[in-house]
Specification:
The protein is mostly helical and about 300 residues long. The protein has one domain. It is built from 15 helices and four strands. The strands form two sheets. The protein has a two-stranded antiparallel ribbon with strand order 1-2. The longest helix has 21 residues.
């Protein structure tokens, strides 16, 4: 490295670190996760027996549908665990069910021409970590915090040869933005609407594939709204497309077309917001209440899916 290159390299490293800090500081849910991580570290982070029971308990039979609204704190910006969300984990979708869904999602993402560019390595335990994050967010367990404490802190090589420690959600997303697998002109760019839609479609397809729409309809309905809330921090216009993303995989012709196109969602990629909104039913495009609706009037899952 030349003397001229060294300060440029430091500038880029500082820029990457600043993006991680900004993502964490500007997202109420990221701040909440950081605060809980600190508390868990201070108390030793041991799981209670009730937490372990919550992780392993599940209902193998189809459950009746009941609407569970999202509960928001932090001035309406932070997802809160409720008795209702805990019961979804206890009665409908345990940690093992979640991991089946997340492993199925990553199998699809590894093959997807858009999403795989963001994934550093197929060998990392992506599905296991994601499932634990979901479980902790919905049940109040500390399985994800426990996992983070044992995570490998070896720096990952990002675009331009920069080294970055990936240890939580914000650092992982910044690493994805600077993935060496992305085209040079895209490295460092945040997720766009079309990429967010591809992510949601594949993720909800995985949920459908693993049977949770049929066996856990209350969880599925809650989870689509939960994902809609969390997508907002990455792309502010993405939440309105969550219900469409769920419906996409209900039509086998959509999946056949996607596979035939080299696993590229040609009907989504490159669209402007105006073009994308034309693909939505007008009530959804105009719905300012969802995913924070307090009744089942605008449920995510169609009744015929139960």
């Amino acid at each position: 490295m030349t003397a001229q290159q060294e300060p440029l390299n430091k500038t880029k490293t500082n820029e990457i670190q600043l993006q991680e800090t900004n993502l964490r500081d500007n997202g109420a849910d990221f701040q909440d996760e950081e605060a809980k991580k600190t508390r868990a570290n201070n108390d030793g982070g041991s799981a209670s027996s009730s937490t372990v029971e919550t992780i392993t308990a599940r209902n193998n039979l189809s459950s009746p549908f009941r609407f569970v609204p999202l509960s928001m704190g932090g001035g309406g910006r932070t997802h809160m665990v409720t008795n209702g969300s805990r019961r979804l984990m206890e009665q409908e979708a345990g940690l093992a069910d979640l991991q089946k869904m997340t492993e199925s999602f990553y199998e699809k993402a590894f093959q997807d021409a858009t999403l795989d560019q963001f994934i550093h390595s197929h060998n990392d335990p992506h599905g296991n970590r994601f499932a634990k994050w979901i479980h902790q967010k919905l049940s109040g367990s500390n399985v994800w915090d426990q996992d983070r404490r044992t995570r490998d802190r070896t720096p990952k090589t990002l675009a331009g040869g920069h080294q970055h420690v990936v240890h939580d959600r914000s650092s992982a997303h910044v690493a994805a933005w600077y993935s060496t697998k992305r085209p040079v002109e895209d490295q460092g760019h945040h997720f766009k609407l079309d990429e967010a839609r591809v992510w949601m479609r594949l993720h909800f397809w995985a949920m459908r594939d693993t049977g949770l729409l049929e066996t856990a309809p209350s969880f599925a309905d809650y989870y689509v709204r939960f994902i809609g809330h969390f997508m907002r921090v990455y792309e502010g216009t993405a939440p309105m497309f969550a219900r469409e993303s769920l419906r996409w995989s209900a039509n086998p012709a959509n999946i056949e077309s996607y596979v035939a196109s080299g696993r590229r969602m040609t009907d989504v990629l490159g669209l402007s917001l105006v073009q994308a909104e034309r693909q939505l039913p007008s009530p959804e495009a105009a719905d300012m209440e969802w995913p924070y609706n307090t009744t089942a009037q605008n449920a995510s899952v169609e009744p015929e899916a139960f």
